[in-house]
Each structure stands twice: as structure tokens, then as C-alpha cells.
Amino acid sequence: MEENKTSTIGKEFTMLELSRFIAPPVLTRLLVSFLSTLDDSLFVSRYLGANALAAFSVAMPWFMFVDAIGMMVSAISVICSNRMGRKLHEEAKSDFTTMSLVTFGIGSILTIILALFSKEILIMLGETKLLLPFAQEYFTVSKFYVPLILVNYIFNSFYVIAGKPKYSMYASGINIFCQLFFDYLFIARLGIGIVGAAYANLIGNLTLTIFAIIFYSNKQREICFTKPVSDVWPLLKEVIKYGRIQAVTSLAVSLSSYINNRVQLSIGGETIVAAYTIVANVTFMFMNSFFALIGSTSPIASYAFGERNPKKLSRIIRQTVVLIGVLMLFIFAIIFFGKDLIIDLYLNKSGSDNLRNLVNYGFRVYPLSLIFFGYNVYVQEILNVFGRHKVSLFLSILENVIFQNSATIILPRLFGVNAVWYAFLCAEILTIFFSAYFVYRYKDVYGYGSSGTASFVDNKKASP
């Protein structure tokens, strides 16, 4: 069924309007990532010690695998945005409802797998005898909120499409309050150990899910729950096509994390794993703000692409490039002025000098990767929106599998333990050259080059 209503994401944005539009989800993602870092690593590091933190880090590839599925299914937001750009609003609502149900089912299957094979999975990930008890304790509870994590990927990505980006901030605020309160209660006050962090995550994700169900049950929303489609497989194939780049990226990060842990345990033991976890978690917190910015502007680009409007598409691309640069400067200012405070938050006075020195060195090197990271991610995302899935996938594999893992394995063997901090930076520098090439190659196909040519207007295959 077609409708004539105009979606919020279909308007003509000035730079100021776009900045205001994306500010809530970006700030929310940054705040959520910061407080989630407090939850997942700071409380564990400060109150339970370096071994508990290392155990959590070694188990992290599993959660990144879950994230990979979440990133893939959230590609339904790009598909629905395109539908809305073509005035297929009812179809977009039905697709959103269908994927929400399918995603919850996928999460339930993963919960069963964890319930049956959690110890085997943890040993396969590399948990040592010293670390395994901490990880097993956390997994006794964490397996139950996997379906909630996955379905919240979809819910969170649709607040912007529904024209209510501030609601992502409201939802996240509730989630953050729950997690921090119960982290403090369970770990700092009651002292029930690392399982307290798992209980806090469970309560926070459950609260976030309930909030989203209430929001999307309102039939007046531009996106809301409705009757799901009867034939799920064609939609699922489309989601996989558009979401595989995000999934491969997240899986590649998971593989890199696994290789990192193996290399670090072999050359520096649990201490370097704990140090790397602190620096990488804080840096990833800021990386998430890039994902939020790009995730907020990509539906606008997808809408313009669905409209076959090269002028609007070119404008949103240029605006996003500028905003990525502004965000990068903001992040470096925070790291430069707040590095010592962050270290003090993670490591109490009884922490070892060796661990503190490793963390301090890591903060001087590892975050430099963000200079290139934001633009590499945006090129991959925008090419994916354009339907250049194979090119986008190629860039992701090149960056996260070939360059990242090669640097992780080779550099520490040649230059010692401190070389682990340079692997991510090397991967991003090498990738930026390939990203620049593909930006240049397709400049006249999609009209963002100086000529203003947009051959996709006459190419029916360009539209999803």
C-alpha cells in the first residue's frame, strides 16, 4: 500500500538541522558506550582485579559474534528507509515487525547453545585455568539476555526513522540508570562478583526492550508494529544482502579480538590482556559514536537514493564527511585532557606499576587509529547503501581480517609487547588508500563528484 506522507528523514537538511538531528543518537551512543564501559570493564577491573578483567576480555569474541548478528539484522533500517522513500510505508512497517520477531527467535537459539556448551565455548576462546572460573560465572546469567540484545539492535536503529531521535536518548538513559545502579549494588556493595555485572546487563536490556515495545505499539508512529509478512525468507535474504557488510565487520573484529588475546597471552600473559582491554574498550567507546553518526545519516542517504535524488544524496554525503571530522576533533580533545582520569578510574592505587605503564603507553598510540577509522567505516556504509555490497564487503575484509590480523601477528614478534598498540593503526592507514580509490571511482556514478553526474538515475538496478 502506498502513502503520500513525507517522512522526517526525507526532508532537506541544512548543516545545522542535520547536526541537531544526529546529536541525540550520537551523544546517546557515546554516553551509553561510556557507561557500558564502566559496567563491563571498569567495575570489574576496579573491584575484582586484573584477572577478572582479562577473563572478560578473552570471552569478548562471543559477544562480538552476537553483535555481528545484531549489526546484520539492523540493516532492515536501511531497507525500510528505502521503502519509505518510495512511499511504501505499510510495507516498511510490516518488514520492521517481521524482522523484530525473527531476530528474537535467533537470539533464543543462541541462548540454548550457550546453555548447552558454555564451558566448551570459553575454553575454545582461550580461557586459562586462572581465568575460566570468572568467565563461567558471568555466562551463567549473560546467556539469558542474548535475545534482548539482538532485538534492541533493531529497536534502537528505528527511533531515528520514526522521526523521534530523542527517544533513543530516553531509552538509553533508562537502560544506563538500571545498569549502573545494579552494578554498584551487586559488585561494589553486595560483593557478589562478576555475575553482578551480568545481572545488571540483564535488567538493563529487559528495561530497554519494554520501553521499545511501548513506543512501537503506538499506531500513530511513522514506524510501528503491524501484521508481519507471511513469507519471511525473501525479506531475510534482503537483510542478509544489506547487512552482511556489518556482520562481516563485526565478525572480523571478533576474530581480531581472539587473535589479539592469543598473541598477548603468549608474549605478556594476563597483564597485557588486561591493559589492552582497558585501552581498547575506551577507544571502542568513542568508535561507537562514529557508528551512531553514520547510522543516523545513512537512512537519509538511503531515502534520497530511493527517491533517485542525486542533489540531496550529494549534500548528505558532504555534510556527513564534515561531521565525522568535527566528531574526531571532539574525541581527541576528550582523550588528551582526560587520559589520566580514565586510568585512575580503572586502576586503584594498589594496581601494579607495570599494568599502569602499559595502559598509559597504549593511550598515546591506539586512539590515533580514529583519524582514519571514521572515514573508512563511512565509505563502506555508503557503498553498501548504494548497492555496491561486494565492494563494501571487500573493504571490510581487507581492513578487519587481512590488515588487522597480519599486523597483530607480525608486529609484536618483531618489535616486542608494546607493538600490539600499533596493529589497529596500521590497518586503518592501509585501508584508507583503498577507501579513497573507491570514492574516486564512483564519484560520477552517484553524483557526489564535481561534475554532478549521477548515472544511477537511469540505472534501475541501482535501487534496492
How would you explain this protein's 3D organization?
The structure is a single chain. The protein has 464 residues and is mainly alpha-helical. The chain has one domain (14-462). It contains 14 helices and no strands. 52% of the residues are buried. Mean pLDDT is 83; it is low at 1-6 and 460-464.
Topology record:
Blueprint: H1 15-48, H2 50-73, H3 76-85, H4 89-125, H5 132-142, H6 146-158, H7 165-189, H8 195-216, H9 232-307, H10 310-346, H11 353-365, H12 370-385, H13 389-415, H14 423-441
Helix pairs in contact: 1-2, 1-7, 1-9, 1-10, 2-4, 2-5, 2-6, 2-9, 3-4, 3-9, 4-5, 4-6, 4-9, 5-8, 6-8, 7-8, 9-10, 9-11, 9-12, 9-13, 10-11, 10-12, 12-13, 12-14, 13-14
Most strands sheet: none
The rounded Rg comes to: 22 Å
The dominant shape is globular
- Compute the number of helices: 14
Detail the poorly predicted runs: 1-6, 460-464
Mean pLDDT, all residues: 83
Which features does this protein show?
mainly alpha; disordered C terminus; 464 residues; 14 helices
